[in-house]
Here is the input.
Amino acid sequence: MLKAIARAHNRTQLGIGGKLPFSGCDIWNSYELTWLNEGGKPVAAMAEFYLPATSPNIIESKSLKLYLHSFSTKKFKSREKLSAILSQKLSKVSGAKTNVKVYEINSIKLEPPINLPGSCIDNTNTKLSVYNYDPGQLSGGIDKTSQTQETLHSHLFQSNCPMTGQPDWASILISYRGSKIHPDHLLAYLVSFREHAEFHEQCVERIFMDIKRHCQPEVLTIYARYTRRGGLDINPFRSDFENSPANFRLLRQ
Here is the structure.
């Protein structure tokens, strides 16, 4: 039921070969996991899946939704037993160790949503008119006379699922050190994904590579927090200087 999609094809298009220019992971949150206890009573739960960026494959989200739903009439002794099965199967399909955490709803401590760190670039007054993917929007977007280290973010990112055509929305976090990147150029570039069809993980790697090529920062992090669809959200993180982040939640998540 689970469908693997090779990372290699998209990475070849991006000029990524051999050793990856970044590290990171894809953090999946499942909000609609359920199974039956030994007495036949349903258990309501949530789960977190951590796929390393080094895995050969990503997992197509619709297939994962259907796979998780298949447990709704299966009996398990404990959430630990189910967690072990999920980790085994997802690791097999992704091609790398996939860590899984399962929480019953009544055991979860509610944490309020956070705001992304750094400066929001969405209030720029620049006029935008390009909605088809255009990395050229980054050209001329740096000030080589001004060196900085800063964190920026935008809530205006949208791309589209290449399988279903459904829109995907995300907040994008960008941390870097190097020549200052003009927010107007950066926002225009992010908005140009509006009619672009690509998986979440591929979009984030594309953003990482484009900013590296056009803006040439010394170090760079891209972290996308996507809104959920079908009970799942996917949050890819790629960096050449930071460790994988905490799995926090934003207002739209």
About this structure: Strands lie at 4-6, 23-36, 42-52, 57-59, 99-104, 119-120, 142-160, 167-181, 219-226, 232-239. The CA atoms of residues 45 and 148 lie 44 Å apart. Residues 79-94 form the longest helix (16 residues).
